[in-house]
Design goal:
Helix 6 packs across helix 8. The strands form three sheets. A five-stranded parallel sheet has the order 2-1-3-4-5, with helices on both faces. The chain has a four-stranded antiparallel sheet with strand order 6-7-8-9, with no helix packed on it. It folds into two domains: about 120 residues, Rossmann fold (3-Layer(aba) Sandwich), CATH 3.40.50; about 90 residues, Arc Repressor Mutant, subunit A, CATH 1.10.10.10. About 35% of the residues lie in helices and about 20% in strands. It has about 240 residues and is of the alpha/beta class. Helix 4 links the parallel strand 4 and strand 5.
Length: about 240
């Protein structure tokens, strides 16, 4: 199968876990502006639920959190959690050598003390991802049961016959296809439409399911990920 060169490559997906609402929001905004897709969690419990549902390219974990701390969460990830091979960057207000050693002992790939410059965080993330390997190439055509979607042309076919898509449906399907098998935040999708409430996205998803799925009420390919958004799961 040939590799696509002109369609967008998959955004690297980061999970940021920090109990400080302000820091969490600032990190999400900054990293998103720098080309990442960012999901945020306020504590380890919320992070565990997200890790059970989604795939991430890197985890950014705060150490000092109420309840389970970042060390414990990182240890759980490394000892058999659903993302045990995912790189981990630890964030903490502590700068003592023993804390850095503890972070590395849990299996973290790097350790950054607060306060830090956002650019340094960005450079460390990019360095970790380079060491972890390049991003996978995206196939130029995805199989969806009896359907095929050509990302470059933006064409959907069923049993070899073209299926008519609106411009909005094509844009949404391309967005999901370029992040295949990764849940895309519903509100991130909504910000790319004229209706920031998300209702337009929901309508487009319903219409696409009628065109793709054998049973639109029990979708196999265009899935809803509860609490997050939508995911395209091609064959």
């Amino acid at each position: 199968m040939s590799l696509m060169t002109s369609a967008p490559s998959r955004e690297r997906h980061l999970l940021v876990v920090d109990d400080d609402d302000r820091i969490r929001a600032l990190l999400k905004e900054y990293l998103t502006r720098n080309g990442f897709r960012v999901t945020a969690a306020q504590d380890a419990e919320a992070a565990r639920k997200l890790l059970a549902l989604l795939d991430f390219d890197l985890l950014v974990l705060d150490v000092m959190m109420p309840g389970e701390d970042g060390f414990s969460l990182a240890r759980w990830v490394r000892e058999g959690g659903p993302s045990r091979l995912t790189p981990v960057l630890m964030l903490t207000a502590k700068d003592a050598a023993e804390d850095r050693i503890e972070g590395l002992r849990t299996g973290a790939d790097d350790y950054l003390s607060k306060p830090f410059e956002p650019e340094e965080l960005l450079l460390r993330i990019e360095a970790i991802l380079r060491r972890a390997g390049g991003r996978p190439a995206i196939a130029d055509s995805l199989a969806l049961g009896r359907c095929q979607f050509d990302l470059e042309r933006g064409e959907l076919s069923r049993d070899g016959e073209l299926v008519r898509l609106t411009e909005a449906e094509t844009r949404l399907l391309r967005r999901l296809a370029s992040n295949a098998h990764v849940a895309v935040d519903r509100m991130d999708l909504a910000r790319e439409t004229a209706d920031s409430s998300g209702r337009a996205v929901d309508v487009q998803v319903t219409r696409l399911r009628r065109k793709i799925e054998e049973d639109p009420k029990a979708p196999r390919y265009l899935q809803t990920v509860r609490g997050v958004g939508y995911m395209l799961a091609p064959d």
